[in-house]
Structure formats: C-alpha cells, structure tokens
Write a sequence for this structure.
C-alpha cells in the first residue's frame, strides 16, 4: 500500500480537525449549560478527546500496513464491516454538515448582511468536492502551506483580546458545585470524538522517528491554544458570552482601541474559513473513501458526489441555519453521534487488545 | 546513390535543392588533373577557411599515387578540420544543411565533407531579462555549440553528458539533453528523452516548442518547465540534479524538474549576503501575493465589507469615490484592462516610443481619468501598485496578471468569500501538480525542512550540505566537510 501522508502532514491533519470544530461556536454553546465553569467543561472535553486520540494513534501505528476497511473485514467479515462503516459515514457526515453550517452562519453574521444559502453552498461544495477528489495528499499539502498563516492569525486575534481580560468573570471556580461542569461536558459531546475520523487514514501514513512525541506535543499544544482561546473569551465577555456567537471572530471586537484600527475580525474570517474548508474537505474525502469501501466505486468522483448530495440534502432540511439545526437535528442526532462514538471507542479497545500479526497477514 | 560522373552528381544536388540560389557549386581542378567541385550553402561556411584550409591544399598538392582520391584529399586538408568521407546521399545533405562544405571528385562515388561551419552568431552578452548587480554577466546565444561550450566551461568533468537529439521534420533542429551522470536520477533523463523522441513536428524554431511537449499539463496557466538564459544558473541547476535541454536557435535553455519556488529565486541571491537574499525572496513572495489579491480585496471591501475599514480611512475613500459613475468592481476592471493594453502596446512599440507611451499612459491617462471623474484615485493607485508588484517575479508576470483578473472577479461577485475560495482552489490546484517526480509547490507543500536552506531562507553555501530533496537524485551529498 502506498503511503499518501507523511508524519508531518498527518500531525497537521489532526491539528486542523481539532482546531476547526472548536474555535467558533463551542464556547458560547457550552456556556449556556456550564455558566462560569464552562472553561472546565471545555478542558474536560479535551481530556476525552486526547484519550481517544491516544487510542487511535496507537491503533494506526499497530496496523500501519492495512486499511481500516481491510481490518474490519478481517475481523468481522464483509457485511458487518460495511454496516460499521455506514455508522462511521453518518458520524462524519454530521460532523461535515456541522462545519458547513457553522461556516455559513459565520459568513452570515460576520461578512455579509445577507447571503443566499445557495450562493454560499455552491462554492463551498465545489471547493471541498474538488479537494476531496484530488485526494488527501493535496488537502494535507494545502494545510502545510496555510498552517503558518492560520497560526499567526490566531495569535494576533488572541493578542487583541489581552487588554480587556477580566479574571473575575470566571472566578471563583465551581461556585455551584461540579454539576454545571458535567452539564457543559455532556452538551458538547457532538463536538468531541473527532479523532475517530482519523481511522480512515489507517495504512496511509508514513510514520517517522519521533512521531509519537511530535504528534502528542503539537496536539497538546493546539488543545492548549483552544483552551486559552476559551479562557480569553470567557474572561472577556463574562455573562454575555452566551449572546456572543463566534469565539475567535469576536475576540478582536471587544477593545475600542483595536476596533478603531479597523475590524480585525477579517483576520479570524480568513483563519477560520481556511481551516474550516480544509477540514471539511478532509471529512468529505473520508466520506468518499467509505463510499468506495462500501459500494466498491473505483473513482473518487462518484462517492464524493454522493456524499456532497447527502450533506446538501441535510443542509436543506435544516434550512441552512445553524441555530435551527441546533434546535432540529443537533439535539436529536447528538445522541446518535454519542452512540456511534461509543461503538467505535469499543472497537478501538478491541483492536488494541488483539495480536497484530494475526490480523495483518495478507 | 552517387554516380561516377561529376556532372550528374552536381545536377542531382541542384535538383535536390530545387535549384535554390543559396546552394553554391564551384567547380575547380584538384591535384593538377582531377575535375572537382565544392558545394556548400551560402552564409553557412567560413569562406576564408574554405579557401586556405580546403581549396588551396587540394589545388596545390601533387596527384594521388593510388586511386582512392577521397582518402588522399582528407589527408591533405588542414589537420585540425573535421573531414570525413561520405557516400550516402541523405548524410551528405544533412552535412550540407549543417554548414559543412562538400567536395565532389570526377570518377568517384563518394565525397569529402569538411566542417567549415560559420553560421552568423551573436556574441555572448548579458541577457536583458536576467541582469545582475554582482555575478557573471555571460548569457546564452542562439548557437547550440556556443551554449554547450558555455556550460562545459563551468563544469569541467567527463560526467557532464550532452545527449544529441534531432527534432523537426523540416527544421532538423539539434537538441542536447544535458545532465551530470552520478547526480541526476536516470528515470528523469529517460522520461525527458522519451518525450523528445516522440515529438513529430514539422519544425522547431525555439525552445518554447520543446517546452510545450515536455509539460505534463499542457492546458495549465502555470509553466512546468524552468528556463534560463544564463550558463551559471544552468550549471548550478545541473549540480542540483536537474536536466537541461538546449535547443539550437534559442538562447533560452530549459530545465527539469521545475518547481514554482524557483521563480522566486534570483541569480542575484547567490552573489549577495544570505540575509539580504532571504529578505528579497520574502519581498518577491509578498509582492506576488499582493499583486494577485489586492484589487480583488479592494473590490470586496468596497462592495460588501466596508465596515472592516477604519473609520477615518473609510471617510477619506468615500470622499474620493464620490461622483464616480462606475461601481468599484467595474472601475478596477476598467483600469486593469487599461493597464494591460498599455503594457501590450509598449512591448510592441519601438523602444523609445514605448518608453514615451508608458509615461503617457501612466501619468497623463491615469491623471486625466481621475480628473474627468471616470475612476477614483484609490482604484488607480491599487492597480498601479499591483502592476509594479507583479514584476517582482519576472517569470510569473503573465500568470500573476491572469490571477489578478480572476481574483478581482471573485471579489466582485462573492466578496471575501470568493477570494478565500479562489485562494483555496489555487493552492489545491498547485498542490496537486507533480512534475517529473517533484511536487510543484515543494519545498513548501509538501514542506521539506532540509530544502528551506535555499527556499524561504537563503543560507550560506557552506551550510547547504545536501542537494534538494524536493525531487529525486542519486547522490544527495553536496558538500564534504
């Protein structure tokens, strides 16, 4: 099997997935449930993410010469393997849909006073579809190019917030006990478990020396950055965090001195859009890959098209609105996602326990 | 087939050239008794050498003792000249076309071909497109032999190989595929040679013809073959493990594999301090990026996102665009088209008139358009700025101009959203190109850390221990410590 991803590209891919789903809407959303202790709910969520990530990465290295479908097939047989993959398809499709919706709402709030859903969705579908068809190699290379700009953008956005930080907004911790923290943690379950998507890249990674150290170092660093963004956000907006919709985009909005220089949230627009679209493309690539495994398509175009149609239909059902989506689908599907996540966590534990040689024989 | 009759042979040659007036046939008596004739193409031979080195010895030497006139003639012609006996008609014609003079003898079915080539050639001079402040000023010329010699002068090793090929049914253009044995990856050489071998075209008048056949994506906006007019650059690329393709009649030498970042490197970088070179590279990259997206961003901001402009600047811009009949989008498009027309016209005009035209275009037309209220000063400034910036990377100017137009459209239609989509598409497209084993955006995407010594940064030559890893080669070590 040819290795499509270098170690560096895989690390970036995991970082992008972690970043994209957690810098815009998660913080106000969690605040609704956890209040002042939202930061602890977020940290707890990251702990869960890191545990799953560690399991997935060990698994990817254990079965580095076989595809995920190949492994499932050998273990459970073709039919069960395909059923399990359909679950994963739904999981990733919902995550991808969420990213599309999040980007659309973001544009609607930040960039345009009005943007037709179609004008948004057609270029979005085109660009993510293009990347998915071109393959994970193209997506990963693009991530390599944009990563430095994204990092600089995030740091600038954070720096613009420093002046208005007020620790009193988050102190004292656990004023109402630890139950709000767990409420917040439960509410964000839909945002978590993204590391499971990395299973689709099984057998495609060229692991190099010091991979483990670099992987966990950079992922921990990114988790810390996102937690610090959350910390800044809560310290900046306090109780009104509930009514602020987009974390990173709203960080530079607080300080009058900064806003006098111009609305620096254009920086967050660039940062978030690049990260969101590249991650959506990676998700779409995974969906197309699952489509190929399940239906046996040889070319990427057809499964990518099917995945896009599936996501677009879901988007139309939700009336293109993130808020409506949270009301209509998210609450219902959140539990479905939780169940799929649980199934796959169990699967990962099983695969971690089995002997490698037995299941990687050709 | 040649016959023993000199008259018949000469008629046959004239007939073969359809009695073309530039085929010169001069009859004379050689060795005091043998009727002979010298045949050559006018303008392609060194007449001085022909008289003193070929005709004089043949006329003054005693007659041969044996019957074999041609071999005897070869021995009498000045020693350093390349002379050979030929009897095949097509070979004789090829030699004639390549500037050889051919001597026919009575009662002989073979001829003597003497290399007396002297095509009109330009002397190596500094190429106008690659002027440097420091470093060598020699440039390639249109003569392939001179170009080969200019490379040999810099790489004095038998490992430098020049494989000879011929392309073009009518032009019979000579092509040399040049590489260093022991450094270059054989697969790259094979692929290039196979592609050249398969070219079946009537004529090749410039290296750009060959370049089109060497590209994998022939409809792409981006070029996939490197070019240079300077032997020092070609020598350094050969040392990196690349292959050069030299085409007779063209001062532009092609290099492969080619990666986009090469255009952001300049020969000046290697003859200046590393820090300065690094700064210049960043400037070029920044200039190219701004040249592509600035007009699009201006249009997007003015049409959709004016809230992101600081209020004082917004008031100033609002005052300056007051009363302009065109929308910012049409205004910028109008100025871009005006700029492109001026550029095109100034290229075609005689040099001094072209200079005057660009001054007229830039100062008078722009100023008048602003005063007439057709366009606003910010729009003129932005297009002029991007016009200048597009020349920071001279080899990519046409691509930058095209992309500038595309991004202006995207900014006008979809605002920042369109520009981001365009940027992503461009990055995805460039990342997906693979050129003779080299990813097109290497060493940036994929990021090759070791190659950054001569990419984003320009480190001193003492720290460039290995050859670029962005494309395959068989000998990676460059510097022995």
């Amino acid at each position: 099997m040819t290795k499509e991803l270098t170690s560096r590209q895989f690390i970036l891919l995991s970082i992008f997935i972690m970043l994209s789903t957690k810098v815009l809407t998660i913080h106000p959303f969690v605040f609704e449930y956890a209040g002042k202790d939202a930061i602890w709910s977020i940290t707890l969520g990251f702990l869960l993410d890191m545990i799953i990530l560690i399991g997935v990465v060990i698994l990817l290295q254990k079965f580095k010469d076989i595809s995920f479908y190949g492994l499932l097939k050998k273990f459970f047989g073709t039919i069960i393997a395909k059923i399990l993959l359909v679950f994963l398809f739904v999981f990733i499709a919902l995550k991808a849909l969420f990213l599309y919706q999040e980007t659309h709402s973001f544009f609607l709030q930040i960039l345009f006073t009005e943007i037709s859903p179609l004008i948004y969705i057609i270029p979005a579908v085109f660009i993510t579809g293009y990347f998915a068809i071109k393959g994970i190699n193209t997506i990963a290379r693009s991530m390599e190019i944009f990563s430095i700009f994204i990092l600089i953008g995030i740091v600038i956005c954070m720096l613009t917030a420093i002046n208005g930080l007020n620790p009193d907004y988050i102190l004292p911790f656990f004023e109402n006990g630890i139950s709000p923290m767990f409420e917040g943690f439960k509410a964000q379950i839909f945002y978590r478990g993204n590391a499971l998507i990395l299973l689709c890249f099984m057998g495609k990674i060229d692991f190099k020396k010091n991979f483990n150290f670099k992987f966990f170092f950079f992922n921990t660093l990114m988790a810390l950055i996102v937690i610090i963004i959350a910390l800044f956000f809560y310290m900046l907006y306090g109780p009104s965090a509930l009514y602020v919709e987009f974390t990173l985009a709203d960080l530079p909005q607080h300080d009058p001195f900064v806003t006098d220089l111009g609305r620096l949230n254009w920086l967050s627009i660039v940062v978030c859009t690049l990260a969101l679209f590249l991650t959506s493309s990676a998700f779409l690539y995974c969906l197309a890959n699952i489509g190929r495994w399940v239906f046996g398509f040889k070319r990427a175009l057809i499964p990518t098209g099917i995945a896009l149609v599936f996501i677009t239909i879901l988007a139309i059902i939700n009336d293109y609105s993130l808020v409506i989506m949270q009301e209509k689908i998210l609450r219902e599907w959140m539990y479905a996602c939780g169940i799929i996540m649980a199934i796959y966590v169990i699967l990962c534990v099983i695969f971690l326990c089995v002997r490698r040689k037995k299941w990687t024989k050709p | 087939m040649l016959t023993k009759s000199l008259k018949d042979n000469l008629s046959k040659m004239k007939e073969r050239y359809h009695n073309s007036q530039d085929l010169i046939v001069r009859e004379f008596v050689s060795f005091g008794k043998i009727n002979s004739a010298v045949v050559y193409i006018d303008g392609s031979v060194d007449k001085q050498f022909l008289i003193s080195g070929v005709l004089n010895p043949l006329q003054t030497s005693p007659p041969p003792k044996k019957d074999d006139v041609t071999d005897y003639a070869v021995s009498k012609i000045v020693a350093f000249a390349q002379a050979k006996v030929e009897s095949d008609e097509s070979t004789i014609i090829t030699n004639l076309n390549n500037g050889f003079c051919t001597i026919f003898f009575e009662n002989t079915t073979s001829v003597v071909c003497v290399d007396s080539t002297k095509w009109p050639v330009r002397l190596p001079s500094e190429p106008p497109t690659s002027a440097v402040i420091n470093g060598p000023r020699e440039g390639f010329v249109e003569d392939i032999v001179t170009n080969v010699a200019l490379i040999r002068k810099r790489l004095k090793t038998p490992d430098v190989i020049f494989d000879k090929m011929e392309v073009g049914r009518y032009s019979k253009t000579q092509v040399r595929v040049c590489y260093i044995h022991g450094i270059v990856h054989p697969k790259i050489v094979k692929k290039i040679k196979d592609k050249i071998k398969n070219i079946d075209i009537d004529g090749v008048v410039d290296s750009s013809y060959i370049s089109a056949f060497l590209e994998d994506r022939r409809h792409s906006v981006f070029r996939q073959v490197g070019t240079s007019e300077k032997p020092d650059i070609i020598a350094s690329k050969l040392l990196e493990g690349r292959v050069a393709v030299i085409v007779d009649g063209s001062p532009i030498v092609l290099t492969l594999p080619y990666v986009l970042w090469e255009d952001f490197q300049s020969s000046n970088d290697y003859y200046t301090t590393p820090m300065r070179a690094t700064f210049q590279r960043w400037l070029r990259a920044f200039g190219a990026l701004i040249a592509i997206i600035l007009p699009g961003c201006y249009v997007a901001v003015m049409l959709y996102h004016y809230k992101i402009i600081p209020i004082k600047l917004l008031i100033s811009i609002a005052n300056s665009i007051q009363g302009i009949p065109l929308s910012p989008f049409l205004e910028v498009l109008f100025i871009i088209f005006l700029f492109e027309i001026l550029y095109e016209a100034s290229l075609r005009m005689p040099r001094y008139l072209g200079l005057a035209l660009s001054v007229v275009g830039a100062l008078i037309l722009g100023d008048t358009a602003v005063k007439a209220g057709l366009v606003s000063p910010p729009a003129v400034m932005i297009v002029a700025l991007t016009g200048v910036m597009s020349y920071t990377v001279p080899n990519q100017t046409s691509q930058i101009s095209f992309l500038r137009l595309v991004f202006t459209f995207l900014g006008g239609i979809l605002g920042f959203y369109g520009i981001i989509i365009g940027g992503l598409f461009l990055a995805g497209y460039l990342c997906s190109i693979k050129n003779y084993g080299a990813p097109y955006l290497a060493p940036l995407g994929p990021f090759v850390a070791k190659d950054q010594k001569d990419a984003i940064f320009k480190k001193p030559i003492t720290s460039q221990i290995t050859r670029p890893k962005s494309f395959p080669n068989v000998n990676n070590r460059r510097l022995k410590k």
